[in-house]
Specification:
- The structure holds three protein chains of three kinds.
- By secondary structure, chain A is of the alpha/beta class.
- Chain A is built from 13 helices and 13 strands.
- In chain A, β1 and β2 form a beta hairpin.
- In chain A, α5 packs across α7.
- Chain A starts with a strand and ends in a 7-residue tail after the last strand.
- Classes of the chains: A alpha/beta, B mainly alpha, C mainly alpha.
């Protein structure tokens, strides 16, 4: 659990954080959302003490982060930044092994961990282990960046716009993997983003910030349905409120039993969202879609009218 | 690359070996000169002295330049950086020969004024290269290093210095070549080096000695440039 | 020479050291030291002023001490020694740092230096520095110093002006034909590796031969020993900074700006004149500055092969071990180089704006 208590921070005359109070529950995937200058990155960097607060404090599991030496603290917190920040003079394996090496792991344990993480992030260890960062594509480099952050198995992961510099296709692929990773490991993730779609796709909790303050914190659905501030409403609406709502609802929750479904309905996979269902119907010019179960057998029907319940 | 280092070195060695026996050649080239070969000191001894001046100025210069460069680029060292910049600015404008001359009243004749000027001038390129190279290490790499939990010392030795090493070595190469040239000027203040036959020749109206000293000094500069090129390939000391 | 200053009864007799205690210079030095100390607590501008005043005070103190110690003698002279040198250097550095802290640009720094020079001139005119050895020497050798200044400037210009023309042409060629650039720039760079003293010396014989072979050249004064090898040698060294700066200046315009100019229908000549040259001018001027400062320094060495200039005084002084004469040659060279550097930096800053 990460708790910000009345945190203030100024850089010269510029006030980056103006009394931030925020709780990130254990195991949450929390996204700090807001425009540039909102104070999101400042808040994130206070957690691993890359920045020290002027006033207030940051607690990890009830313990003030200032109570621990910064290097030791940082070694048990994963950190991923935009632009990746891989060490250009080290191979992929050495980059991933950076924190374990700082922690004094033996070489065999580090090597095994590197293999494990490369496989987890779908990079063939034999092919990528000895490459240099300059020999990686942007997406591959960011995978290595995530692997490096996970190397010492931290239970908190800080991510500062990790996918900001990637093309749309690569970004979506990495977002999907990050979602799996969060589901599989249950780590607490705190991520900074300015992209509402990204926040809706990943977050279990969203904290909207502006001008160094927290505007609203809640589940994605809460923020969509009952924004507490006009700025939150504008941000969350963005001219696509309905579609965004649909994207938060699993199609399975709207499906009816597969009675006598007409032939030729478009099919959608088990994990599809209501938005995917609508997309399938519009693409096929049909008024319903056939939901498959995990094995690909028809499990129910989602009709156009059902989407109104989302 | 390798040839670029070996050829000048071989030429220098050959000149050093052949010159003592080249009396008749210079006699034929300069028939009006009574003593066509410089014999007051052996060329090898002069070359050794010259190399000694270069080496003993380069080592402190490297230590000062790299140390000051590191200090000037630490966070919160804006004042140090300002001192370094001001020193570099002053010293770059004042020619080495003026420093040697100004040093003579202070430290006397001999190797001392040359060494003083050499250390001053060899420090500059190293300092400039070090601050420049450390400043170009990408901020996100530094951020990642600190975020990974490296101590400031670990960030410096494991990330910053390895990344900055090639430009620093290039700066060292510039410094070495500059030191060879400045050491030759040291002869005017009485330092014994390859500039000595040049000065002696000019004073005594003996062009043969001038050519002998100039040849060796020039070849030595190329040899040092080539040798250090092995350390810092890609960037020539003489590249703009 | 240790001590704060050195006193000599005349030019020939070796001087004796003067400690700070001997001199009743405290009246001058204490305010100077106080000003320097105070500089640490003052704002940048005031601190620079205090340091400048302290430096002037230090010099005036030397002069007054000299006058007091010399008694009635008109030939006794007081020279600065290690103590005075260190104090002066520390004050200069402090003044430079204070100017930096005040956020002064090159223009303001040049103005501050000019102000200090004016104060120095006032001290000289008031006769306060008459007993300082360097001033003694300069007064005694007035015509020589003026001749050296004229020769030094003349030789520097004689090397610099052709180097600007030919260096710029070479740099433009290197820019226009990237294939030829390594050969051009690399060739000029290789020249830089040769120690100046060696190059000048090696040029004597070819010029002597040329002079023997072509009587006409001999009649216009071209000889092996003299200005010719020095000017030609300096010219060769200056080609690299000018050519490299020209090439960089032509390439200084962002590719997007040049591309936009082409897209808007500029002819290549218009793109050069309206985009590349204005954007590259400060870079080129930077090369001119490097070349000018180098010219002033290199010409000094030219005295070794018989060219004139301040080098003559300096090497004479080295030959006679006359510290004042050495300084009379070396200090103006340093001052000339610093003035050129400051003036051209100020011009660069003005252009870049």
């Amino acid at each position: 659990m990460i708790r910000f208590e009345g945190v203030e921070k100024s850089f010269g005359a510029a006030r980056a954080l103006d009394g931030l109070d925020l709780v990130v529950p254990e195991g949450a995937f929390a996204v700090l959302l807001g425009g540039s200058g909102a104070g999101k990155s400042t808040a994130l960097r206070l957690v691993n003490r890359l920045i020290e607060p002027d006033a207030g404090r940051v607690l990890l599991r009830g313990r003030d982060v200032a109570a621990e030496a910064a290097p030791a603290l940082r070694r048990r917190i994963g950190y991923v930044i935009q632009g990746i920040g891989l060490f250009p003079h080290w191979s992929v394996a050495r980059n991933i092994g950076a924190v374990p090496r700082l922690l004094g792991w033996d070489d065999r344990r580090i090597a095994a961990r590197v293999e494990e993480l490369l496989a987890l992030l779908r990079l063939d260890p034999a092919e990528y282990r000895d490459r240099m960062p300059a020999e990686l594509s942007g997406g591959q480099a960011q995978r290595v960046g995530v692997a490096r952050a996970l190397a010492a198995d931290p239970d908190i992961l800080l991510m500062d716009e990790p996918f900001g510099a990637l093309d749309a296709v690569t970004r979506q692929a990495l977002q999907a993997e990050l979602r799996h990773l969060h589901a599989a490991t249950g780590k607490t993730i705190l991520m900074v983003s300015h992209d509402v779609e990204e926040a809706l796709a990943l977050a279990t909790r969203i904290a909207v910030m502006a001008e160094g303050r927290l505007l609203q914190e809640g589940s994605p659905r809460e923020l969509l349905d009952s924004p507490a501030d006009p700025r939150v409403r504008d941000l969350m609406d963005g001219g696509a409120l309905g579609m965004r709502r649909l994207s938060l609802v699993p199609a399975a929750s709207l499906a009816r039993p597969d009675g006598a479904a007409p032939e030729g309905l478009p099919r959608i996979p088990a994990g599809a969202t209501a938005r995917d269902a609508l997309e399938a119907m519009l693409a096929a010019r049909a008024d319903a879609a056939l939901l498959e179960d995990a094995t690909g057998v028809p499990a129910g029907v989602v009709a156009l009218a059902d989407l109104l319940r989302a | 690359m390798r040839a670029g280092a070996v050829v000048p070195l071989a030429l220098f060695a050959a000149a050093l070996l052949l010159l003592p026996a080249a009396g008749p050649v210079f006699g034929a080239l300069f028939p009006e000169v009574a003593e066509p070969l410089y014999r007051r000191e052996a060329f090898a001894a002069l070359a050794l002295n010259h190399a000694g001046l270069v080496l003993f100025s380069l080592l402190p210069a490297a230590a000062i330049g790299i140390g000051l460069g590191i200090a000037a680029t630490r966070p919160g060292a804006a004042e140090t950086r300002a001192v370094a910049d001001a020193l570099v600015g002053f010293a770059q404008a004042v020619p080495p020969v003026a420093v040697i001359a100004i040093a003579v009243p202070a430290v006397g004749f001999g190797a001392a004024p040359a060494l003083l000027a050499l250390v001053c001038y060899a420090t500059l390129p190293v300092l400039r290269a070090t601050t420049g190279a450390l400043a170009t290490v990408a901020p996100e790499v530094l951020d990642a290093a600190r975020g990974a939990g490296m101590t400031p010392r670990q960030v410096l030795f494991q990330v910053e210095l390895p990344l900055a090493a090639p430009p620093i070595l290039a700066g060292l190469r510039v410094a070495a070549v500059l030191a060879v040239a400045t050491a030759a000027v040291g002869a005017v203040a009485g330092a014994s080096c390859l500039g000595t036959p040049i000065i002696a020749g000019l004073v005594n109206g003996n062009p043969a000695w001038v050519v002998q000293g100039a040849l060796l000094a020039g070849l030595m500069a190329f040899a040092v440039d080539g040798l250090l090129g092995l350390l810092a390939p890609g960037v020539s000391a003489s590249s703009p | 020479m240790a001590g704060f200053a050195v006193l000599a009864p005349n030019r020939i007799v070796p001087p004796r050291a003067v400690a700070l205690m001997d001199a009743d210079a405290f009246a001058w030095l204490l305010p100077a030291a106080a000003a320097a100390l105070g500089a640490a607590f003052l704002s940048g501008r005031a601190a620079a002023l205090a340091c400048g005043a302290a430096l002037a005070g230090l010099l005036a103190g030397l002069g007054a001490t000299g006058a007091a110690l010399a008694g009635g003698s008109t030939v006794a002279r007081l020279g600065p020694a290690a103590g005075a040198w260190v104090a002066a250097a520390a004050l200069l550095l402090a003044a430079r740092l204070a100017l930096g802290r005040a956020g002064a640009g090159a223009v303001a720094r040049a103005l501050a230096a000019a102000g200090f020079a004016a104060a120095l001139a006032a001290l000289l005119a008031a006769g306060l520095l008459d007993h300082v050895s360097l001033v003694r020497e300069a007064v005694a050798r007035g015509p020589e110093v003026r001749a050296a200044l004229a020769a030094h400037l003349g030789l520097s210009a004689a090397a610099l002006l052709p180097a600007l023309a030919i260096g710029a042409a070479l740099g433009a060629a290197a820019f226009a034909r990237p294939g030829a650039a390594p050969a051009i720039i690399g060739g000029l760079a290789a020249l830089q590796v040769i120690p100046a003293i060696a190059l000048f010396a090696l040029l004597i014989e070819p010029f002597a031969a040329l002079s023997r072979a072509v009587p006409l050249l001999r009649e216009v004064g071209l000889r092996g020993i003299g200005a010719a090898p020095a000017v030609f040698g300096v010219f060769l060294y200056l080609l690299l900074p000018v050519a490299a700066a020209t090439r960089a200046a032509l390439g200084a315009a962002p590719a997007a700006a040049v591309d936009a100019a082409r897209g808007m229908g500029f002819t290549p000549a218009q793109a050069l004149l309206r985009v590349r040259l204005p954007l590259g001018a400060p870079v080129f001027l930077g090369g001119v500055r490097t070349a000018s400062v180098q010219a002033v320094g290199l010409v000094t060495l030219g005295a070794l092969v018989g060219a004139g200039g301040f080098g003559v005084l300096m090497f004479q002084g080295l030959g006679q071990f006359a510290p004042d004469l050495i300084l009379l040659g070396a200090l103006p060279v340093a001052a000339l180089a610093l003035v050129l550097d400051a003036a051209l930096r100020a011009a660069e800053e003005g252009l870049a704006r």
